[in-house]
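Revision sheet: structure tokens.
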Amino acid sequence: MIKAAGTSCIGIEEIYRQLLQHGTPVSVGSIYRIVRQFESREVLLREWDRCRKTMYRLRPAGFGSGQLRMVCPDTGRVAELDDPELYRLVVAAAKRLSIDLGGRSLAIQLAQPAQEARDHAKGPRLVASRA
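Predicted:
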């Protein structure tokens, strides 16, 4: 199911729904256990959508710490950057704010509040989340 999603993310509930549609009897708890195992083996990346719902996707080949993934929650557009210096700067900024990133890859979600969208007075705000 996750492989079929390609580079986009999929949630546990969607995996559960698709398995049931294919006639595979499974519990949500079993899906969580399997997904956690794949995540611990670095097969999957965990991300969050704009409602803070946990989503999963396959880890791209060669993707690891030192890489950044920028996501626009409105359009779903994604840019992946392999820039160790930029990664170092983001980690240093997080450390100054007492945020422990634990050497993980980073997903930066681009957000633009409604007021900013109306008057374009300010640029987009960057909100970092762990991936």
